[in-house]
Amino acid sequence: MATVVAPPQSAASGGGSGPSSRTESYVDTKRKDDVRIANITAARSVADAVRTSLGPRGMDKMIASPNGDVVITNDGATILNRMEVLQPAAKMLVDLSKSQDSAAGDGTTTVVVLAGALLKYCLPLLSSGVHPTLISDSLHKLSVKAVEVLTSMAKPIELSDRDSLVKSASTSLNSKVVSQYSSLLAPIAVEAVLSVLDPEKPEMVDLKDVRIVKKLGGTVDDTELVKGLVFDKKVSHASGGLTRIENAKIAVIQFQISPPKTDIEQSVVVSDYAQMDRILKEERNYILGMIKKIKSAGCNVLLIQKSILRDAVTDLSLHYLAKAKILVVKDVERDDIEFITKTLNCLPIANIEHFKAEKMGFADCVEEVSVGEGKIVKITGIKDMGRTATVLVRGSNQLVIDEAERSLHDALCVVRCLVCKRFLIAGGGAPEIEMSMRLGAWAKTLPGMEGYCVRQFAEALEVVPYTLAENAGLNPISIVTELRNRHAQGEVDTGINVRKGQITNILEENVVQPLLVSTSAVTLAAECVRMILKIDDIITVR
């Protein structure tokens, strides 16, 4: 921005309250420029931190927290979430990554890298004297036009075309630590999303209906999609409890099968042995009465919600339940109750008086299965099962399991994007180069400074193919130049094949991504940069 800095005035030069000070035309905007440049520099440093993790050949980051936890990942949202960013403008890039994660689920690194590149190209414009508002407006026009360019490149797909969905999920997984398992995880992600899809609302997919259960032991190869329910806990074995039930009638209960306690915290002192025997007898009768009601309803599997105030079950109640041939899974988390009842197509029972057969769910088999060093409970063959899916993720150590879960979440989000907006575009830097070229040509038709700004930002979009080539160990300048040349000849779907180290038709190599991921990345990056540009001061409130 063009600024004229007022020279420091001394008393001798008439810097008092005379007429000259009232007609002063100089404005000192140096502070505003300094704040803007400081914000841009801080935000760019965050973008540079994750830039090396972009693409299939991107590096991984090891994040060590003060309490000794270690995370190894190359997921942009996870890296930025774990970083302790103090500068307010840099925090905006962390929020930008979160926004992309919630909007599309994938492209969290791309969106930050794009924002960093756009900010880099803002600096020469600002130093040339272009007003920030003009730069901001040009950026808005560029993002709208960029979405049009991306939409014109997109190819429609149908949900019945399962191969295209799997290819898109595989592309998302190829840049992850667990990329070698993409052939296994991609079909699981597609199956899981399609199984929770409601035909009446085909554009609404709630990923809360897909539950991921992590279990240590084995390798990622042992990961499976379970058509039913999985509990990462053992069956209660007290007094020889059952571990397998066929033709199960399952009840989810939220009350306790244990002696009642007083409403307020107090102690009852009993010194007479006869009275003590009477208390124990009453406790037994109370528990037996509850279990008889449960048995008379035909229930043979109990899922008991975790209790805070008192024990949900006691050794005595487990003993009687085992004698009644009822399988018990205790300490079910409160947050899981909604998912369990939806899957089993049953209702939670809050009181023993409401225990009725119509509130129960039915399944072919409930069994305890040994997995690795521990055990899990599997419920399969559920009658009238709700639209839910459970994925059992396995791994040799906790770091691998956590990364597999994050990668699977990204793949699920990609498939969800395709369900919401059924268009695919090529990956491998092809859309960014095409946008850069078409927006560069469009900039020539715009008048004055606006055209100059758009041309600069069109160049900034080349950062994605440049970074992909750089991270793959290729020569980025020659690769991007050749890519630009091929796109100028009309080869729209040509991109960087990092596995072969050359430029190929990326669609034929099955490197595809949802249109929503790219459009959302460009729109959100432009929005974030515009906001940073318009900040001219930071006011700290104590």
Distance between the termini: 31 Å
Helix/strand/pairing class, anyone?
alpha/beta
Tally of helical runs? 17
Which consecutive residue ranges, at least 5 long each, have pLDDT under 50? 1-21
Shape: elongated
Mean pLDDT across every amino acid position: 86
**Percent of sequence in beta strands:** 15-25%
Main sheet specs: 7 strands, mixed
Number of strands: 17
- Helical percentage: 40-55%
Backbone CA Rg: 31 Å
What does this structure look like?
The chain is built from 17 helices and 17 strands.
Secondary-structure blueprint of this entry?
Elements (H helix, E strand, L loop, with lengths): L18 H4 L7 H22 L9 E4 L5 E4 L2 H7 L5 H16 L4 H20 L4 H22 L1 E2 L5 H12 L8 H15 L13 E7 L7 E3 L1 E4 L12 E10 L19 H24 L4 E5 L9 H9 L3 E6 L4 H8 L3 E2 L11 E11 L2 E9 L6 E7 L2 H23 L2 E4 L3 H14 L4 H13 L2 H9 L4 H13 L5 E4 L4 E4 L6 E3 H19 L9
Parallel strand pairs: 4-13, 7-8, 7-10, 8-9
Antiparallel strand pairs: 1-2, 3-14, 5-13, 6-12, 7-11, 11-12, 14-17, 15-16
Helix pairs in contact: 2-4, 2-5, 3-4, 4-5, 4-17, 5-14, 5-17, 6-13, 6-14, 6-17, 7-8, 7-12, 8-12, 9-10, 13-14, 13-16, 15-16
